[in-house]
Amino acid sequence: MLKDFQKFGKDLFYRGLTSSHGGNMSVRMGDRIFITRTGSMLAHLEERDIIEIGLDEDDSHIMLTSSELVVHRAIYQNTSALAIVHVHPPYAVALSMAVEGAIIPIDSEGSYLFRKVPVEQTASTVGSEDVAKLAAEILREYKIFMLRGHGSFSTGPVLEEAFQWSSSLEESCKIYHYTKTLQAAQKTIADSGIGELEYRKHTDDYDIW
Amino acid sequence: MNGWTGKMLRVDLSAGSTSIEKIDEEILKKYLGGRGLGTYLVYTEVPPDTDPLGEENILAFCTGAMTGVNVPTGGRSSLSTLSPLTGTIFDSNTGSQFGVRLRWAGFDALVIKGISPTPVWLEITAEGATIHPANELWGKEIPDTISTLKERGTSTVSIGPAGENKVLFASIADEKGRSYGRGGVGAIMGAKNLKALRAKGKEKPGIANKDIFDFVNYEASKMVTASPRTSDALPEFGSSVLVNIMNEYGVFPSRNFQRGEFETAYKISGEKLKEDYLVRRGACWGCPIGCKRVTKTKDEKGEGPEYESIYALGSSLDIDDFETIVSANYLCNRLGMDTISCGATIACAMELEERGKLDTELSFGRADLLLKTIEDIAYRRGLGDEIAEGSKRLSERYDMPEVAMQVKGLEFPAYDPRGMQGQGLLYATSNRGACHLRGNMLGPELLGAPKMLDRHASSGKAGVLIVMQHTNAVIDSIGMCKFVNYAIGDDFFARFLTSVSGIKYETQDLQLAGERIWNLERLYNLRAGFTQKDDNLPPRFTEEPLKEGGSAGHVVHLDEMLTEYYRFRSWSADGIPSEKKIIALGLDTLEMEQEDA
Q1: Coil/strand/helix, residue B585
Q2: In this structure, what CATH number is given to the domain that contains residue B572?
């Protein structure tokens, strides 16, 4: 299990899905949860960074667990998930603040995988009971959702799948961003008179070159 | 003036006189109040060769700019003096509401000197201090004393029989057992024939910039709520949340630090306390964390025990009978004794017995003798009279100083430094002796707060520790609790102080103030005769590796860390602050005055 945490932790960081000390992961084993330590670096996890605690009951290890434990617990208690990944993917976070209700991927892969990704918001975000309630409800129906301006929570039967949802969502959001940026840029080019410049003349004729 | 009241109440018990004085505003700005102000007062008013139990020693109760202000954990105050246990400058810190009431009465400091010819108690109001006879209170335990003096809108702290009998680790406590706990401050009150102090005040401190203050407070509350330590772990289990964790790391001391783990730690853990003894959570004034435990045994109700008390009265004595430990904690609170030094000195006696130096029934595991032993200490009966002198003196009396787990005369708290190199350096360099409250490395070495360091590495620890020592000096001086530091840091303290006082403090200003306080304490101790040789640990920690548990095979590499530490501090290889450093901290004038004196 430690190897899985280390492998996907590294991938999450090096793929730019979270910052050096951001994000957390967990795995459920029966009535126990193994969750990353608060403040741990996902790219550099060691044995001491994986904390075992009860699914329902606190014990002294709550001193060490991720501040999002309350959300992880609520998800496990209300869904069949056995693994959870929570990260702060920048493109998805940015897009969550620019759309209402849901992110609808425009790329083929994202469309097949997600159809849509709900975007919700709460007054407080970190380690919040409100988020816990919301996550437990939404993730009964979806595999991933975005907390507006904060990050994604994704689930799966194993860490790899939860990782996949996070990674794929970020890719779809990147494509969305690039597409919209390019579309806006094209409009700008068209409107700017740049097409009158000598080197841009006959641009439309290049397809017969 | 915002931030401080600018007033100090003075009481001379020998003369039977009281007066109110102004405090120089520049002193308050430089030393912040609380521990910083107390350090300044002891440094300038108590020559280090003073008899700690004599007329000339002072008790300087000091409040900080946040004491009694509605910030998270703004209910702390501090008591500075020359310790009879350690002979060092000493400050003892509490969450008792006494400090809040003192501040609301309009005083940054209450300074008591002299010795009353007969027992007295002191009433403090906005008008000043009144000395009352206390013949009828003398001999009473702390809760009885306080219930006699109880009055609406007041807070009272008192000594118990231990203070009256000048037990060198006697404490001063309120009705809930919240104490100016360490260093024998209760013995000084006893020597002064001062039984109790009652403060009445209701004038809440002004805030210079309310809008900024409210915003910083809002942000701080968010951080406290977001941290699992301050919002879950400490509220749910209290400080005893650490028992099982420290045991897993192999740094939970048992049998007087002969071992770093305790097989039956689970029987005396935070979980067990919650399951079998907890009535409800308790909190100091203004604290949203609420780590205090209101507990009950089959015979009694009280507060605690804290993590440190569980080690001192439990694992260190090889006792896992939790009912006895909880009762022993209550008893120490009633009689007025520091549970850490009390338990650690009993552990020292037990090891002397084990090694054949002391002929007594008191041996490791004898839970049946614990309560009687504590009473004997408080009333100085039999062996209790020898234990009442602390572990350093006790072990020297039996010619075996190596079994006293102390630094500069102060007994160790509940973290074996062999599993935490930086903590070892902290104990050795702390100005008041072996103490975890001067820059605890628990966070960075074991909990990952703010960041996780390699706990067995020695190189690089000095710099981190020094920053933490300064931050802790600041927290003690502004009147907040160190637990809040798990959620908020220096930047919040600076913004709180700025918005409350109206004076701009940047984070680095606070670090400088912390460094100034630390160095002034050091200069006092040097004048008192302490040297680099006293920045040391018992040989057990540097020469005897732990044999089992999570820290097996390790010793503290003190010498190399100490060299680095002095260099970081710009001190000489002998541990003396350089002239350049003294000037940079603005301590040169003070030093010259003391040399002239």
Answers
A1: coil
A2: 1.10.599.10
Question: What does the pLDDT read at residue B83?
Answer: 98
Rounded CA gap, B414 and B316, in Å? 9
B384 and B451 share one domain: no
Q: Is the pLDDT score of A200 beyond 90?
A: no
DSSP assignment of B353-391 equals HHTTSS-SS--TT-GGGHHHHHHHHHTT-THHHHHTT-H
Our CA-based measurement puts residue B249 at a distance from the nearest CA of chain A, in whole angstroms, of 10
CA distance B335 to B160: 5
Contact between B349 and B387 under an 8 Å Cβ cutoff? The reply is yes
Same domain, yes or no: B407 and B450: no
Give bridge partners of residue A52 from the DSSP assignment. Answer: A34
Beta carbons of B244 and A61 less than 8 Å apart: yes
The single-letter DSSP state of residue B35 is H
3-class DSSP state of B46: coil
- ipTM of this complex: 0.80
What percent of chain B has a predicted confidence (pLDDT) above 70?
Answer: 100
pLDDT (tens digit per residue) in B128-143: 999 999 999 999 999 9
CATH number at residue B283: 1.10.569.10
Q: What is the SS3 assignment for B129?
A: strand
Instruction: Catalogue the E-assigned strands of B162-319.
Output: 172-173, 179-180, 194-200, 278-282, 292-296, 301-303
Query: Chain A: nearest CA to B75, how far in angstroms?
Result: 24
Number of domains observed in the structure of chain B = 3
| Inter-residue contact B128 to B211 (CB < 8 Å) | no
Best of A62, A66, A128 to disrupt the B interface by mutation (most B CBs within 10 Å)? A62
Per the listing, tokens 């309560």 go with B371
**Pick from B104, B117, B124, B142: nearest CA to B199:** B124
Question: Nearest by CB to B232, which of A37, A49, A58?
Answer: A58
At B178, list the tokens: 């919240």
- B476 and B336 in a common domain: no
Query: d(Cα B165, Cα A42) in Å, to the nearest integer?
Result: 56
Q: Is residue A118 part of a domain?
A: yes
Span A111-134, mean pLDDT? Answer: 90
Q: Which pLDDT tens digit goes with each residue over B447-470?
A: 998 889 999 999 999 999 999 999
Nearest 10 degrees: Cα torsion A120, A121, A127, A132: -40
Domain extent, residue B141, equals 7-200
Residue B282 · residue B176 · CB < 8 Å:
yes
Alpha helices (H) along A59-128: 69-78, 90-96, 108-114
**CATH number of the domain bearing residue A47:** 3.40.225.10
- Report CA dihedral (B429, B430, B431, B433) to the nearest 10 degrees: -110
User: Across residues B59-88, what is the average pLDDT?
Assistant: 98
**Could you tell me the CATH number of the domain that includes residue B138?**
3.60.9.10
Give the residue from chain B lying closest to A59, CA to CA: B271
Q: Does residue B80 form part of some domain?
A: yes
Residue B336 near residue B189, CB atoms below 8 Å: no
Average pLDDT, chain A: 92
How far away is chain A from the Cα of B489, in angstroms, using its nearest Cα? 15
> Can you tell me the distance from the alpha carbon of B311 to that of B340, in angstroms, rounded to the nearest whole number?
8
Instruction: Give the sign of the dihedral formed by CA B475, CA B480, CA B482, CA B488.
Output: negative
What length does chain B have? Answer: 597
